[in-house]
Amino acid sequence: MLSGLNHLTLAVADLQRSLTFYRDVLQLRVEATWDSGAYLSLPGLWLCLSVDPQRKNEPGADYTHYAFSVSAADFPSLVETLNSAQVRQWRDNRSEGASFYFLDPDGHKLEAHVGDLASRLAACRQKPYPGMRFHDAP
């Protein structure tokens, strides 16, 4: 049985550029580095950067993205930091909770989000998506 998300691995074109972004801008902790990769962490997250010569610095056309949690108090300063680092925004927020959608140096779609599943479900109960059904435990 699955017990949770183990880790995320992101293919990167330039390890040093991506390492600098995740360490200095997003403030992940660097755990280990090697010639073609790095392990970084946040509480509850293990992130692997892995050099892949096939990686293009272009975001995918779909909505697939990776969201990081941020507190409401820290959200404005994080957005300011991201804007100062001239990261590219890829979407405007259209849902409950403050969110900032941005690209990393390799075009991976990321999000900084205030809130959690419980707050999202509460908002959806007030204004459900078309066809939405809730599967509450008995």
TrEMBL record:
Sequence ranges assigned to domain VOC in this UniProt record: 4-115
Keywords from the UniProt entry: Transferase
Organism: Pseudomonas khorasanensis
PROSITE patterns, sorted: VOC
InterPro entries for the chain: Glyas_Bleomycin-R_OHBP_Dase, Glyas_Fos-R_dOase_dom, GlyoxalaseI/FosfomycinResist, VOC_core
EC number: 2.5.1.18
GO molecular function terms listed in the Swiss-Prot or TrEMBL record: glutathione transferase activity
Pfam family, one: Glyoxalase
Protein's recorded name: Fosfomycin resistance glutathione transferase
Keyword Manganese (UniProt): no
NCBIfam families in the record: Fos_GSH
